Amino acid sequence: MIVTVTANPATDRLVGLLEPLERGSVVRSEAAHDDPGGKGINVARVLHAAGVPVTAVLPGAADEPLLADLDARGLPHRAVPVSGRLRVNLTLAEPDGTTTKVNSPGPRLDASEVDALAEAVLAAATPGGWAVLSGSLPPGVPFDWYATTTTRLQQAGVRVAVDASGAALSEAVRHASPQLLKPNADELAELLGCEADEIEQDRHEAVRRAQELREAHGVETVLLTLGGSGAVLATPTGSWFCPPVPITVRSTVGAGDSSLAGYLIAEVAGRSPAECLASAAAHGAAAAALPGSALPAPDDLADVPEAVPVEPAGWRRP
């Protein structure tokens, strides 16, 4: 069982524009399309489509449209009742694949709601399984919530993956050492005080920095996604680089979440690190090849060229 945690879920409203976005002008569009969103829900949707047992944990009142959407999709979930209404995020997708996102802050959770959310996560998780903590934290949730929740999950024998940014990511890395981190270049650079451009442009630097992060903070595995520059996997036994998968990019929304899901799909199936990285790269590419906020199902991977990780000599740790 994999449990995903989305502390700040949203209805992702996609508006496909029929012409380039021009600030201050009137732009024609297609009909809007709503999907249940938030990074943890995105991961859960990809896992569920692949047949991997998953439960999505999130806050939300019983009459939230987002919960009805999850029911309609057959996605198992546990919702913690809260008084505030969940947010709606807007994505504007231009014909050339450029996307503009307008994200709302989400409802403020009080202390009892924050505690109830943590208890729901612990109740849903199983020893030996994975819990995925990802996305932003809504108002009212302490910035160290991922760190404290990670520690409690690890004490219960649960492996933890974290995909976040800012203070929430920094606290989790420095004080909880999750088993898996999935930063992008900007997030890794912020943690290490280096330049994101150097990481994206030099795969050797990307591998060195991913291992530096892993070794400095006791993190077992780092899955570093580099967008159009590929992906890196750093483990205690070695490092692997996967070059960018050649696709026509239609939208990058959900690509990182799909990469994390792809890694976990292979990991729970007992695949090798190189195969886990290949799965992550393939799922991320499949998401980027889909329009708007669509997420990949297994059939979508058939149109994606095979992702082949490489491990240059000297990258393996003793």
Account of the protein in words:
This protein is an alpha/beta fold. The chain is built from 10 helices and 13 strands. It has helices at 39-49, 65-73, 111-124, 145-155, 166-176, 185-192, 196-201, 203-217, 255-268, 273-288, and strands at 2-5, 10-16, 33-37, 54-59, 77-80, 87-93, 99-102, 130-134, 159-163, 180-181, 221-225, 231-234, 239-242. Strand 12 (231-234) and strand 13 (239-242) form a beta hairpin. The longest helix is centred in the C-terminal third of the chain and has 16 residues, at 273-288. The chain starts with a strand and ends in a 30-residue tail after the last helix.
Mean pLDDT: 93
**For the largest beta sheet, what order do the strands appear in spatially?**
5-4-1-8-9-10-11-12-13
Coarse structural class: alpha/beta
The helix fraction, in percent, is 25-40%
Number of helices: 10
How far apart the termini lie comes to 33 Å
Computed CA radius of gyration, to the nearest angstrom: 19 Å
> Sheet with the most strands?
9 strands, mixed
Shape: globular
List keywords for this structure.
318 residues, alpha/beta, nine-stranded mixed sheet, four-stranded mixed sheet, 10 helices, 13 strands
